[in-house]
Write a structure and sequence with these properties.
The complex is a heterodimer.
Chain A lengths: L1 E8 L1 H7 L3 E7 L4 H9 L13 E4 L2 E3 L10 E5 L6
Parallel strand pairs in A: 1-5
Antiparallel strand pairs in A: 1-2, 3-4, 3-5
Chain B lengths: L2 E5 L5 H6 L8 E8 L3 E2 L2 E10 L1 H19 L4 E6 L1 E3 L4 E9 L2 H18 L2 E7 L4 E3 L16
Parallel strand pairs in B: 1-5
Antiparallel strand pairs in B: 2-7, 3-4, 4-6, 4-8, 5-7, 8-9
The chains are: A alpha+beta, B alpha+beta.
Chain lengths: 83, 150
């Protein structure tokens, strides 16, 4: 069984991957860390993403061990610069 | 009532101040972040703010709520602007009202520091020479273990 998640990219990461949103299929039971690794394994330009970027799952910051579910919204958050 | 918003509209500072007015308070503090004309020796002529808007609204509300609980006032209003800003434009307004000044200063300072640490907002500086770059930011604190129920 595979699960489908939506990955979102912002600011410098959006410029890097050239897209705001990319659908990704993953094996069931995959974690945030697995998603990052699987994207980076696609090679250029994804391999330029950091190995442990800040990530939010469904709009809440999540660690690399967090399990993903089908339909999750997973955002790659570059270092923030508000204010 | 704690009020927060992330908006593309220009910030009406007087409106933000009005939101925190209360008869029991003797201290009202307003912080404004504004776009300045220089950054690390380069001349800046504008700034673009991008946000993960749906998440930023929630995080900003959480930051204000935490400050409210810690400093014992619900008279807090925080508005962060996104989009293309010009020199002198207000990017963020933080108003806090408390019975005495110490709590207003502490809460206000804490809110801007937390915004800098974890609000999912990014800014791109536009320089006078025509170039533009994303401002180097801060890595938000991310939990190291999967946290309970999501």
């Amino acid at each position: 069984m595979a699960i489908a998640v939506r990955t979102l990219f912002f600011a410098a990461y959006r410029d890097l991957v050239g897209a705001a949103e990319i659908p990704v299929d993953l094996p069931e039971g995959s974690t945030v860390g697995d998603l990052v690794a699987s994207l980076r394994e696609r090679g250029h330009p994804f391999s330029s993403l950091p190995p442990a970027p800040a990530v939010a799952v469904n709009r809440t910051y999540a660690g690399p061990e967090e399990r993903l579910a089908g339909g999750d919204e997973v955002a790659f958050i570059p270092p923030v610069a508000g204010g | 009532m704690v009020f927060t918003d992330v908006t593309p509209d220009p910030i009406d500072v007087v409106e933000v101040l009005k939101r925190v007015a209360a008869a029991e308070d003797g201290a009202v503090l307003l912080f404004l972040g504004v776009v300045r004309n220089h950054a690390e020796g380069r001349s800046v002529d504008g700034m673009r703010y991008d946000a993960y808007e749906a998440m930023a609204k929630g995080v900003l509300a959480e930051i204000a709520r935490e400050a409210s609980e810690r400093h014992g006032t619900d008279r807090i209003a925080v508005v962060h602007r996104v989009g293309d800003l010009q020199l002198g434009d207000t990017s963020v307004a933080i108003a806090v009202s408390t019975p005495h000044r110490a709590a207003a200063y502490a809460a206000n300072r804490e809110i801007i520091e937390e915004i800098k640490k974890r609000l999912p907002v990014w800014k791109k500086e536009h320089y006078v020479d025509g170039a533009s770059e994303w401002v180097e930011g801060a890595a938000p604190p991310v939990p190291h273990r999967a946290g309970g129920t999501a």
